[in-house]
Amino acid sequence: MDLTLKVIEGSRQDLFIAGERVAPRSGRYMPSYDPTNAAPWYEVADAGADDVDAAVQAAKRAFHDPAWRRLTQTDRGKLLRRLADLIAEHADELAAIETRDNGKLLKEMRVQLRAAPDSYLYFAGMADKLHGETIPVNKLDMLNFTLREPIGVVGMISPWNSPLMLLTGTLAPCLAIGNTVVVKPSEHTSASTLALAELIAKAGFPAGVFNVITGKGATAGEALTLHPDVAKIAFTGSTATGRRIAANRLVSCQMELGGKSPHVVFADTDIERAVNGVVAGVFAAAGQTCIAGSRCFVEKSIYAAFVEKLADRTRRVRIGHPTDEDTEIGPLALAAQLDKVEQYVDYGVADGARLVAGGHRPRRDDLPGGWYYEPTVLADARNDMRFMRDEIFGPVVGVVSFDNESELIGLANDTHYGLAAGVWTRDIDRALRFARNVDAGTVWVNTYRSAAYMSPSGGFKESGYGKRGGFEVMREFSRLKNVVIDYSGATQDPFVIRLC
Ligand code: NAD
To answer: Which atom from ligand 1 is nearest to the alpha carbon of 160?
Structure first.
């Protein structure tokens, strides 16, 4: 199987429905751009509602087909293990595709894709461990139990920043449970999900279990979320889109949305490690991570020294082509994203924040036409500044000084997001108090952006709801049915409820 860039370059990528590549009914395609030079490098099908319906019908048929429905959980686990092996074999090719599509560092995408097989193996092992419970009731001749069942067709919508890693978190458990899936990847990064479809077919999953619809959010994405045969939606993307999806249809959703995460530095910490942690938290992936620690709170006694060190490290961040091993920041994924970052830095300066590093598009002859932006530090920030309230999704951090721990918790939680938080301190009591009191689905102490597929992740507040990762996601994507059996043989008064 050839998944190399040369096969995709210049190609027209069709949809993947019922195990086959299918042209969109409208015949329309749209370009996918290389963020390093803003040039289109392949075309992807621009699906309409009729294509979405075909994919959902294929997934629905597959869900009821005995080839999938009557497959044992052990056999589903075996299929997932085969898929894990195939992903391992092709991890570097998949990583190269993602880097070409979203401009993120090749070394980062390789780590993500080389780790993906472990995630599939983890959920392969879960396939036969999902079960209901027997519940004792007050009537001794009654059996009361629960069944854990697949839900049906799951519609998945993914963003462009880590397409396959984010998809894995919901796809692997869905396949382990026995659901079928229609994925709508971001229109900016469709190629890796289509490549994955080839691997899923090769692993032996029945046709229709996994389908890919490509196209725009407002058309293909919206048609998928509105389709009455989609039983559950797994959405990863912006809070604005999540809100629209949730309002559109009464259907169970798992929402992984945006963030504006607090990253806290106490004076008792190792300042060099903390600077490194803050840089990792907000500048990795050019800030295009939902968990970006974009609001940095620093204890007053070390504030000036910390800002100086952070600014110094930020100025030394190596901007370059994402395939170069030495590069630390590549381009942003989209032209619109570059404009947005620039706009928000302007808002910050206009609101009175002090620009101490970055703040420009780099002017370099060796980066022609790419969507690059310097990592940027805005000191003396406040929570009420616009760039501190809205998610920017770019390499921009605001730094705020705080006096004490109780003030800090108020500042950290003063946001409508609640995805992640980080704290640097040597005081374990303080770390635990922070972890308890901060409104965030994930809290890191003396580390940041440490991900594990065995951890339940997911935000609070407007960062979303529902979990992925760990066993929790198996509950999220299965449904719980209660069965009550009366084996007393007695006939009851038909007009009185039977309390048991
Ligand atoms: P986006 O909301 O613009 O798009 C995400 C996906 O939704 C894309 O596939 C898009 O085509 C689709 N979409 C857009 N409009 C739609 C509609 N009306 N109906 C259905 N689908 C629609 O987000 P993005 O710019 O691609 O990604 C960046 C955002 O994703 C950021 O806000 C980031 O924080 C968030 N994100 C969250 C997580 C998380 O785990 N919480 C992870 C990664 C990214």
So the answer is: 26
Amino acid at 350: A
Q: Rounded CA gap, 412 and 404, in Å?
A: 12
- Report whether CATH 3.40.50.300 matches the domain 262-445: no
Q: Is the CB of 462 under 6 A from ligand 1?
A: no
pLDDT in tens, 209-248: 999 999 999 999 999 999 999 999 999 999 999 999 999 9
- Rounded to the nearest angstrom, the distance between the alpha carbon of 1 and the centre of ligand 1 is 30
CA of 162 to the centre of ligand 1 (A): 11
Extents of the domains making up the chain? 5-257+463-481, 262-445
* Secondary structure class of 231 (helix, strand, coil): coil
Pocket lining: 478 vs ligand 1, CB cutoff 6 Å:
no
CB of 237 within 6 A of ligand 1: the answer is yes
**Per-residue pLDDT reduced to its tens digit, 333-377:** 999 999 999 999 999 999 999 999 999 999 999 998 999 999 999
What is the structure's pLDDT at 302? 98
Distance 232 CA to ligand 1 centre (A): 17
Kindly tell me if the per-residue pLDDT of 48 is higher than 90: yes
Rounded distance, CA 460 to CA 424, Å?
22
Sign of the dihedral through C-alpha 285, 286, 292, 297:
positive
What residues act catalytically?
Answer: 256, 290
The string of pLDDT tens digits covering residues 86-143 is: 999 999 999 999 999 999 999 999 999 999 999 999 999 999 999 999 999 999 999 9
Give 90 Cα–ligand 1 centroid separation in angstroms.
26
Three-class DSSP category at 39 = strand
Task: Determine contact, residues 188/102, Cβ cutoff 8 Å.
Answer: yes
Structure tokens at 459: 């935000």
Residue nearest to atom 39 of ligand 1 (CA): 256
Q: Are 30 and 46 in contact (CB under 8 A)?
A: yes
Tell me what the pLDDT averaged over the chain comes to: 97
Whether 242 is in the pocket of ligand 1, judged by its Cβ within 6 Å, is no
Architecture of domain 5-257+463-481: 3-Layer(aba) Sandwich (3.40)
Q: What is the pLDDT of residues 63-93, one digit of tens each?
A: 999 999 999 999 999 999 999 999 999 999 9
Note the pLDDT of residue 1: 79
DSSP letters for 296-361 = EEEEHHHHHHHHHHHHHHHHT--B--TTSTT-SB---S-HHHHHHHHHHHHHHHHTT-EEEE--S-
pTM: 0.97
Cross-strand pairs, 183: 156, 212
